Amino acid sequence: MKTADSPQKRTALALVDSFNRMDVPAIVSARTPSCLRHLYPTAMAQPPQDTAAYARTLTSLRTIFRNFTLTVDELIEDTANQRICMWLSARADTAAGEYVNEYVWLLDFDEGGKKIVRTKEFSDSVMARDFFPKLRDAMEGERQRRAVTVNGVGANGR
Asked: How many CA atoms lie within 13 A of 137 on its CB side?
């Protein structure tokens, strides 16, 4: 007999669904205002983000990562400690080509299991090291092409 999913599991899966729709308000609404997002490994040297900073980051990424999808590869739940750990696969289209990455998210929940109070996110740092400079260069090239077109010079130089 199948048991009903816990509130925290429903929240975690709804969060993944919100990412797949790149629905920033829905993503943010799963978090408490004081929730901190910690990015790992620490070698990435990323400071924690509060909910407002995270919302700004997500809003800027919406236009960069098209067709973004997350797939839950594994989910482990610790109901006694209001915690879920998910191993996720990500894929998107970008100006630099296909983005493929893996994440492990450790989500801590409030007592009701309906809001995330802290996240620890691990990503493939080798992939990030190699991909993001290419993405930055591709985006800069797009900006330069748009600037040339806006300034009255078309692609054929007229």
From this structure: 7
100 Cβ contact list (under 8 Å, min separation 6): 89, 90, 91, 127
Give the torsion through C-alpha atoms of 133, 56, 49, 69, to 10 deg.
-60
Q: What is the pTM of this model?
A: 0.83
Instruction: Classify 37 as helix, strand or coil.
Output: strand
Tens of pLDDT, residue by residue over 32-55, are 999 999 999 888 888 999 999 999
Q: 73 in helix, strand or coil?
A: strand
Q: Does residue 109 contact residue 24 with C-beta atoms inside 8 Å?
A: no
For residue 93, what are the CA distances in angstroms to 17, 19, 79, 115, 157? 18, 14, 36, 30, 29
